[in-house]
């Protein structure tokens, strides 16, 4: 029972941050409509979120085990609760920017804690992969829920209305409930190795870890993966609205299929990997991602349909493009699990810090590049350019397998 309560608290924290973090695509679209800003300016929301994640993770990842995972998670939840309550009161774009900066700082604390706790709750690589995939799957359920929650507050008859910001009052309530769940849950404490290690040594250890060849390839893979995921996730609502000419509320709702595809893909991957080696499985997924883009985007060419009034009226392309999530879903948790399970538990917080930093940098890069191309070349060309990082993912998967067996021993001794 205590273990179940612990996992529930971890999952609930990840769930609520999934809603907040991945609302950026919806908020970008609504900010353009409500505040009359340009697409590149709206894309800076990704930077406020992800650069803050990267900065905070880099500074505190190696220290979080010293203060305790429970305290770190509670601090993050409390910070965002306050920010959510203040944002609709202010009702300005600057408040939205500061909200996403708060979300980023808090998520850095929560993700490092969650990933470290998964290591403490797992006894081998198989159990680690299983629990991490479950947690990441719940994260995607949160993403899926977020699209529908936010779309419920969008006024389809007045897209420029600021009524959508009232959603943050409800999210503040959910954050408070999650805060109480974490408070009363028996979260494991960091092991003794963290208490014996000085703060300077912990930080130095994270820097040393980053220079290992396998880690370099690994974080490059993570960077590219998140670049693709955020490039699609952040701009798919705008793609649906401006390229496929769907109403705003339906554009947001249909984007939820992307999150649903990722959640389903991770659940299916967990079963498939019982019988298939991870390398050909991930390689096949990456290749099929490129194929799906090449098939789907021409279907959106010149689409004009002002009569769309429900999901059932949407064109085929609107349903096909989100399916890329089904293919990309296994990449992130599998690569993370392979890397983390090769380390002692006292090194996993530092590695998670690196994961969070490069995930954040990839997310910001993906959103900014896609937003710039969307503004100056159009939505289709912006999404075609995602083929470049997909090619990089394919190359990095080959390199990761090639040097993993040779370098894991060196990493374990850092």
Structure description:
This protein is mainly α and 414 residues long. It is built from 19 helices and no strands. It has helices at 2-21, 24-35, 39-60, 64-67, 69-90, 93-121, 125-151, 167-183, 192-196, 199-210, 213-242, 248-272, 278-296, 316-320, 324-328, 331-340, 345-376, 379-384, 387-412.
Nearest-integer average pLDDT: 80
Characterize the quaternary organization of these chains. Answer: single chain
Number of strands: 0
Largest sheet, described in full?
none
User: End-to-end distance, in Å?
Assistant: 36 Å
Shape: globular
Helix content: over 70%
Radius of gyration: 20 Å
- What's the total helix number? 19
What's the SSE pattern? HHHHHHHHHHHHHHHHHHH
Beta-strand proportion: under 5%
Low-confidence stretches: 409-414
Pairing-aware structural class of the strands and helices?
A: mainly alpha
In short:
It contains 19 helices and no strands.
Overview features:
414 residues; mainly alpha; 0% strand; 19 helices; globular
Task: Summarize the SSE layout with pairings.
Blueprint (H helix, E strand, L loop, with lengths): L1 H20 L2 H12 L3 H22 L3 H4 L1 H22 L2 H29 L3 H27 L15 H17 L8 H5 L2 H12 L2 H30 L5 H25 L5 H19 L19 H5 L3 H5 L2 H10 L4 H32 L2 H6 L2 H26 L2
Helix pairs in contact: 1-6, 1-7, 1-8, 2-3, 2-11, 3-6, 3-17, 5-6, 5-8, 6-17, 7-12, 7-16, 10-17, 11-12, 11-16, 11-17, 11-19, 13-19
């Amino acid at each position: 029972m205590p273990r179940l309560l612990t996992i529930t608290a971890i999952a609930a924290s990840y769930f609520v941050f999934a809603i907040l973090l991945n609302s950026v695509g919806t908020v970008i679209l609504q900010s353009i409509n409500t505040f009359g800003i340009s697409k590149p300016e709206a894309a800076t929301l990704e930077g406020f979120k992800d650069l803050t994640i990267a900065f905070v993770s880099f500074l505190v990842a190696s220290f979080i085990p010293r203060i305790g995972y429970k305290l770190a998670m509670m601090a993050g939840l409390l910070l965002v609760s306050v920010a959510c309550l203040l944002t609709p009161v202010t009702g300005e774009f600057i408040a939205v920017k500061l909200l996403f900066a708060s979300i980023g700082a808090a998520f850095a604390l929560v993700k490092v804690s969650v990933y470290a706790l998964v290591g403490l709750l797992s006894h081998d690589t198989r159990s680690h992969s299983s629990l991490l995939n479950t947690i990441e799957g719940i994260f995607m359920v949160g993403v899926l829920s977020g699209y529908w929650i936010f779309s419920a507050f969008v006024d389809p008859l007045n897209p420029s209305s600021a009524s959508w910001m009232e959603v943050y009052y409800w999210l503040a309530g959910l954050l408070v409930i999650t805060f109480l769940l974490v408070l009363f849950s028996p979260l494991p404490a960091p092991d003794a190795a963290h208490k014996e290690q000085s703060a300077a040594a912990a930080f130095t250890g994270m820097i040393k870890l980053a220079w290992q060849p396998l880690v370099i390839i690994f974080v490059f893979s993570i960077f590219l993966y998140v670049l693709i995921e955020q490039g699609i996730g952040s701009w798919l609502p705008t793609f649906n609205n401006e390229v496929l000419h769907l109403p705003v509320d339906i554009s947001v709702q249909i984007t939820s299929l992307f999150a649903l595809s990722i959640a389903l893909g991770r659940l299916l991957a967990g079963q498939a990997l019982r019988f298939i080696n991870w390398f050909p499985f991930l390689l096949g997924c990456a290749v099929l991602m490129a194929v799906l883009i090449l098939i789907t985007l021409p279907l959106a060419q010149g689409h004009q349909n002002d009569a769309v009034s429900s999901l059932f009226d949407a064109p085929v392309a609107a349903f096909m493009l989100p399916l890329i999530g089904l293919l990309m879903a296994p990449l992130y948790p599998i690569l993370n699990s392979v890397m983390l399970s090769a380390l002692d538990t006292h090194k996993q917080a530092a590695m998670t810090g690196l994961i969070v930093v490069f995930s954040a940098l990839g997310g910001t890069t993906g959103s900014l590049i896609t937003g710039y191309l969307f503004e100056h070349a159009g939505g289709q060309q912006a999404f075609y350019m995602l083929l470049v990082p997909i090619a990089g993912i394919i190359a990095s998967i080959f390199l990761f397998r090639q040097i993993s067996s040779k370098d894991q021993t060196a990493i374990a001794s850092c």
